[in-house]
Amino acid sequence: MAQSPVIAIVDDDEGVRTSLASLVRSLGYEAQAYESGVDFLEHAPGDDPACMIADIQMPVITGDELQAQLIASGRRFPIIFMTAFPSEIVRQRVIAAGAHCYLGKPSSGDEIIRCLEAALAGQAP
Predict the structure, then answer these.
(1) Which ranges carry the Response regulatory domain (predicted)?
(2) For the segment 75-100, what is each residue's pLDDT rounded down to a tens digit?
C-alpha cells in the first residue's frame, strides 16, 4: 500500500495550523504541523515532506528565511507560502527561490487545494 504524501504545515497561529491540517487530511494526505520554522528544523523527520505550507510572518525565523535555510542545506521541495501581510518584494523573492505559490490570508480552501495538488503533481500553479 502506498504511503500518503506528507504535507508539513508551519505556522505560529494554532488555529491556522489546525484548519490547514484538517483540510490536508480531508484530501487523503498526512499532515505534520509545526509551530515555527525552528520547530520544523529541529523536529521534522529525516525524510523531507512532499510539500510544505508555511506562513511568512513568524517569530525567530520567517518563512522566507526558513526557505533560504532549507535551500542552503540542499533540501528542495515545493513550498506554498501564506501571509496576512502580502508584499510584492517578498513574493518575488520566494517565487524566484522556487516557492510554488504565494497566497494571502485568508485564502479559500479551493485556492489552497489547487496550489497543493499542482505542487504535488509538479505542475505550475
Answers:
(1) 6-120
(2) 999 999 999 999 999 999 999 999 99
Please report the sign of the dihedral spanned by the C-alpha atoms of residue 72, residue 73, residue 79, residue 83.
negative
45-75 per-position pLDDT tens digit:
788 999 999 999 999 999 999 999 999 999 9
Please tell me the pTM assigned to this model. Answer: 0.95
Read off the amino acid at residue 8: A
Three-class SS of 65-103: HHHHHHHHCCCCCCEEEEECCCCHHHHHHHHHCCCCEEE
Q: Quick check: is 32 in a domain?
A: yes
Q: What is the DSSP letter of 11?
A: -
Count of the separate structural domains present in the chain: 1
Which residues form the domain of 115? 6-74+102-121
Residue 43 belongs to domain with CATH number: 3.40.50.2300
Instruction: Return the residue matching grid coordinates 506562513.
Output: 55
Residue 82 lies in a domain: no
Q: Decide if 51 contacts 125 (C-beta within 8 A).
A: no
